[in-house]
Amino acid sequence: MNPVTPAPGRDRLRIAIQKSGRLAEPARALLASCGLSWRESRDRLFCYGESLPIDLLLVRDDDIPGLIADGVCDLGIVGRNVLAEQDLAGRADTDGPRFRELRPLGFGGCRLAIAVPDAWQWREPSQLAGTRIATSYPQLLSQWLQGQGIAAQVVLLSGSVEIAPRLGQADAICDLVSSGATLAANQLKPVQTLLDSEAVLAGPAVDFDDVRAELMELLLRRLDGALRIRRSKLLMFQASRELLPTLLPLLPDAEEPTVMRIDGAERLALQALCHGALTWQRLEELKRAGARGLMVLPVEGLLA
Ligand code: PRP
Ligand code: ZN
């Protein structure tokens, strides 16, 4: 192969994202915030990159790891749960990993959990011995059961796992929990978390050695900037000078605040760019410590 001319079609980066479902919109919005724009094909399965040679392929989330492993797509945005399950499944017939998680993306948060009927008196995992557990995640469940030394029957279902106990197909389930509404609606309760998940950027296990390496570097740089901005907030408040030693350590991952004097020397107005989570709880702590007029503002852009 001539190393100077890349194989046809591989001088562009191709990212697989979910066509519809809970990761679809946020995934596109995140990529758009990295300055990517596309022209959509008529069938809406392919988006041709206009601002950069980075195209999108809209697919079923469960297909994304395989598309990356087969080299059909270069990157993908998919739940860690799907990636982890298919990674384990692939280990059976290949030696090393076929894809890897490159970045957690901070949306689509959920957990893979075991849930049992509300009526169960739950004490410990060993109660699952001898039961039937319905799931779409047989690899992750089997691995966990094995680690716990529990012999249970894994019942593979591709969907509607939560109704399996009512239908008598299983005694418990192992499924994704986000808000918990699905479990509650089916008189089930989560009792054990197997995996904390969120949307991640996934890529192949080996680095690219053509023009895609540069495109990926550019994308990751912009992505890191976009993710940092999303988490960042500008916090403004007032306080008297002597309280600063107590207040400043309470600012989550803050940059050096801008301090302005008001009402002479004792009263201060502060502006701090916080990169950590500014929760309600944290704001209440600041207020208790003497901060007044607390205001949190979103950050639209950052250029250090
Ligand atoms: C998951 C899971 C549950 C539901 C839980 O399915 O299988 O049905 O979400 O969410 P809740 O705790 O907020 O009620 P999802 O919609 O992600 O679709 P999929 O697993 O079929 O891809
Ligand atoms: Zn799915």
UniProtKB/TrEMBL annotation:
Catalytic activity: 1-(5-phospho-beta-D-ribosyl)-ATP + diphosphate = 5-phospho-alpha-D-ribose 1-diphosphate + ATP
SUPFAM superfamilies: GlnB-like, Periplasmic binding protein-like II
Top EC class of this enzyme: transferase
InterPro entries: ATP-PRT_HisG_long (IPR020621), ATP_PRibTrfase_cat (IPR013820), ATP_PRibTrfase_CS (IPR018198), ATP_PRibTrfase_HisG (IPR001348), HisG_C (IPR013115), N-reg_PII-like_a/b (IPR011322), N-reg_PII/ATP_PRibTrfase_C (IPR015867)
Entry-linked NCBIfam families: hisG, HisG_C-term
Pathway: Amino-acid biosynthesis; L-histidine biosynthesis; L-histidine from 5-phospho-alpha-D-ribose 1-diphosphate: step 1/9
Full protein name: ATP phosphoribosyltransferase
Domain Histidine biosynthesis HisG C-terminal intervals: 230-300
Pfam families, alphabetized: HisG, HisG_C
Cellular localization per UniProt: Cytoplasm
Similarity comment text for this entry: Belongs to the ATP phosphoribosyltransferase family. Long subfamily.
Origin superkingdom: Bacteria
Keyword Lipid biosynthesis: no
Activity modulation notes: Feedback inhibited by histidine.
Gene Ontology molecular function: any one: ATP phosphoribosyltransferase activity
Function statement: Catalyzes the condensation of ATP and 5-phosphoribose 1-diphosphate to form N'-(5'-phosphoribosyl)-ATP (PR-ATP). Has a crucial role in the pathway because the rate of histidine biosynthesis seems to be controlled primarily by regulation of HisG enzymatic activity.
Keywords from the named record: Amino-acid biosynthesis, ATP-binding, Cytoplasm, Glycosyltransferase, Histidine biosynthesis, Magnesium, Metal-binding, Nucleotide-binding, Transferase
PROSITE patterns: ATP_P_PHORIBOSYLTR
The protein's Enzyme Commission number: 2.4.2.17
ATP phosphoribosyltransferase catalytic domain mapped to chain residues: 60-224
Cofactor(s) it depends on: Mg(2+)
Keyword Cell inner membrane carried by entry: no
